[in-house]
């Protein structure tokens, strides 16, 4: 069983302000969690192969491909402006944040 001082220390590390009632509540709950972890440590897992996922998964991302090579900075700027939803005086127009 965790002591109240240990719970207060954990709360301080987590920057939590706990009342005396909450300290008592968490004293019991954290102790139960730590007891369960001790039980899990007793399980023999030497013959079990580690897995990342319980189902078969594969990478669905495509490789990087160069679509079109722009020769100059001006070409890149013009292409960007063509793709933009809104422009004004040769600049990208974006919604204000504030």
What does this entry look like structurally?
The protein has 98 residues and is mostly helical. The protein has a domain at 4-41: Histone, subunit A. 44% of the residues lie in helices and 4% in strands. It has a two-stranded antiparallel ribbon with strand order 1-2. Strand 1 and strand 2 form a beta hairpin. Helix 1 crosses helix 2. It is elongated and about 70 Å long.
How much is the average pLDDT? Answer: 85
> Which oligomeric form is depicted?
single chain
Number of helices: 3
Helix content range: 40-55%
Which H/E pattern describes the elements?
Answer: HHHEE
Largest sheet: 2 strands, antiparallel
What's the total number of strands? 2
Question: C-alpha Rg, in Å?
Answer: 29 Å
**CATH architecture descriptor of the domain at 4-41:** Orthogonal Bundle
Structural class: mainly alpha
Runs in which pLDDT lies below 50 for 5 or more consecutive residues are: none
Strand order of the largest sheet: 1-2
Strand content: under 5%
CATH top level assignment of the domain at 4-41: Mainly Alpha
Question: Shape, please?
Answer: elongated
Per CATH, what is the topology of the domain at 4-41? Histone, subunit A
First-last Cα distance: 51 Å
